[in-house]
Amino acid sequence: METILLGTGLALGAYVFIYYNFFRGPRCHNARSLKGKTVVITGGNTGIGKATAVDLARRGARIILACRSKERTESAVYDIRKESGNQQVLFMKLDLGSLASVRSFAETFLKSEPRLDILINNAGIIADGVTEDGFNMMFGVNHLGHFLLTHLLLGHLKRSTPSRILILTSDSYRSGKIDFGAVRVPSKGVKQNIQAYCNSKLANTLFTRELATRLQGTDVTCYAVHPGPVYTDVFRHVKPWLLKVFARAFCRLFFRDCENGAQTSIHCTVQEGIEPFSGRYFANCQVNEVQSHARDDAVAKKLWEVSEALVGLTE
């Protein structure tokens, strides 16, 4: 019995040591105030987005949670106001799987809000099927919805300089590829869903790179943010259910919680002096180099042009 207890104690000790030294990741220690600043966070009602919203609300920012579910987001608004003591936390409806909803959100926001200092394209999904507009669900939500949203809000960002755009990506971009012939092909099954997610994260990374090129000289900067391995609600649409159960159990043990996962987003929002790294990829609160296929300027430019056509921004 003593041997079992000793072994269990050593195993738990090893787990705690490994988690806090290797899994948890660094924290942002910048205490910068954001009073007078307006922040839009997509998917800010849960997970990394909500944790980011709590931190930025504590800094005094006006926070707009751009989310699909009114019920869940109003509950999150209550939580964030209570935790931060900041009453300037609001809900505006946005469904990134609907280009019409993206346009409606932008119209409402531009009419009601005089400025936009920080846009955090945080929302992400792992799900099969297609969007309302017939695009692969993950390409449509994770990339195209944010692409259109960013374009529609750029005017406000340029009038509120210096301003920033954060685009949450993932280390899974490494396994991604850009297949322009598959943007309307729904993914089915575990393997295809994982590949489609990786593809969408590569699109996020390339989008950030091309966006930075087009924003040169505007005093609007942008950053691709990898939060690290984080246990979030992104797995809620995973099928079959047994895989979902396994994924949640594994991630709860070995992945970061949402507060720790939000640290690089917070860093890229408040850290002074990172403007020269616009368009770059940040992880663990510092700039990182990406693999060559995520630095392909020709593909990034073509992705931009194809995305413009897909969302109706070209004549």
Please describe what this structure looks like.
The chain has ten helices and eight strands. By secondary structure, it is an alpha/beta fold. An eight-stranded mixed sheet has the order 3-2-1-4-5-6-7-8, with helices on both faces. β2, α3 (70-84) and β3 (89-93) form a beta-alpha-beta unit. The chain crosses the membrane at residues 6-23. Pfam families: adh_short.
How are the SSEs ordered, and which strands pair?
Blueprint: H1 2-23, E1 38-42, H2 47-58, E2 62-67, H3 70-84, E3 89-93, H4 99-112, E4 118-121, H5 137-159, E5 163-168, H6 189-214, E6 220-226, H7 241-254, H8 258-261, H9 263-270, E7 281-283, E8 286-288, H10 297-310
Parallel strand pairs: 1-2, 1-4, 2-3, 4-5, 5-6, 6-7
Antiparallel strand pairs: 7-8
Helix pairs in contact: 2-3, 4-5, 5-6, 6-10
Question: Which parts are unreliable, with pLDDT below 50 for 5 consecutive residues or more?
Answer: 7-22
Look at the helices and sheets and give the structural class.
alpha/beta
Strand element count: 8
Q: If you average the pLDDT, what whole number results?
A: 90
* Global shape: globular
- Terminal CA distance: 75 Å
Q: Strand sequence of the main sheet, in spatial order?
A: 3-2-1-4-5-6-7-8
Strand fraction equals 5-15%
CA-atom Rg in angstroms = 19 Å
Query: Biggest sheet, in brief?
Result: 8 strands, mixed
Instruction: Count up the helices.
Output: 10
Helix content: 40-55%
What are the secondary-structure elements, in order, as H or E? HEHEHEHEHEHEHHHEEH
